[in-house]
Amino acid sequence: MKIESIRLKNFKVFKNTLMSDIPQLCVIVGANGAGKSTFFDVFCFLKDAYKDNISKALNKRGGFHEVKSRNSDGPIEIEIKFSETSFKPLITYFLSIEEENGTPIIKREKFGHFIDFSRGKGFVVTNEPQREEQTLARPDILAIKGLAQFQKFPVIMKFGSLIENWHFSDFHINSAKQIQENGYAEHLSREGENLSLVTYRLYERDQNIFNEILEKLKQRVPGINSVAAKITEEGRVLLKFKDANFKDPFLAQHVSDGTIKMFAYLVLLYDPSPHPLLCVEEPENKLYPKLLWELAEEFRMYANRGGQVFISTHSPDFLNALELDEIFWLIKNDGYTTLKRARDDEQVAAFMAEGDQMGYLWKQGFFNGVDPQ
C-alpha cells in the first residue's frame, strides 16, 4: 500500500495541513522547529498506538494536551489515503482522538468501508455486505489492532502488518560501534545498535546482497576492501573493516564515523525484506558531500522497489540529486506549519526546467517562506 495523501488536524504544529499526491520518494525541507520531526512522528504515533493503545502513545509524547495543537478546537485527526492495486478508488484510514473526563478516547476510527468504530463500539465487514457488531475492551484501543489478529479479516490483517513494518531510522554512530552479544536481528534497528548482528545475518544467508553492499562501500570509501562480522568464543559479535593498506582489520570502534554510516545505510537499503515505509532524518550528517548524490539515488532505488521513503534534510548537496516532484518544504507562521510542494512554485519549477538544481535554488532563497522569520 502506497501512501497517497496525509491530512493532519490539531497534531502539534500541524493545525490543519494536507500533503497530497505523495511520491514514492518524498523529501521534506524546513527550518529548525518547523515540524520535520513532528511530521515523521505521525507515523511513529500510529505505530505506537497500534502496538499498545492511544493513551500510551499520547503519554509517550507528554499527554493529550502536548500532542494537540495549542489554542485549537476539536479533536486530533489523522487521515491517510492509500493506493493498492486491489483497492479502487483509494482506501482511507481515519482516526479522531479527543479527551473525555481527562481520559483520551478514540472518537472515530474508520478504515475504508471495512471498519467503523466510535468510543470502542462499531462494526466490521465480514462477507460483504454482511457486517458484524463488535465491542472493544477499552475506548482507547485501535479497532485495527484487535481485528488484525483474525484471518477472517484479511484486509485488516494486511493493514495491521503494514503499520507494524513501518521503519524509522535515527542512526546513532556511537550505538552502531558498540560490540553486541550474539542474537537474532532481522532488520537494522532505529539507532543502528544491532549493525553487527544484521551484517552477520547477511553474510551467512544472503551472500549476493552482502557482496553488493561491499562493492558499493569500496567504491565510496577509499581503502576499504572487506567487511566481516565474527562471533567470538564469548558469544559477542565483532564488526571488522579491512583497509587494503594495512595487514590487520579494524574493529568498528576505530573506523571513521562516515564509513560506519555509509555502510549502515547500505545495509538498511539493501535489506532483503524492505520496509513498506521508511522514514530517515537528515541522512547527510557525517557523510562527505560528494557521496550524497549517490545516497539519494540509493534511496530512490529503494522506493522504486516498493518501499516508500520519507526523508528530512538540511543539505543542499542532497537536494541537488532530487527531482522537482520529490520535494516539499515547511512554512511556519503564527506557531503553525503548512506544507508547500516545490512543483507548485512557478519560479522554482521554471528554474528546474532550465537545468538548475534544487539545492542551489534553496541556498539562493527561492523556497519562499522556508527560512525562519
UniProtKB/TrEMBL annotation:
Gene3D superfamilies: P-loop containing nucleotide triphosphate hydrolases. Residues 27-319 form the ATPase AAA-type core domain. One of its GO terms (molecular function) is ATP binding. PANTHER family: ATPASE AAA-TYPE CORE DOMAIN-CONTAINING PROTEIN, ATPASE-LIKE PROTEIN. This is ATPase. It comes from Candidatus Thiomargarita nelsonii. The lineage of its organism: Bacteria, Pseudomonadati, Pseudomonadota, Gammaproteobacteria, Thiotrichales.
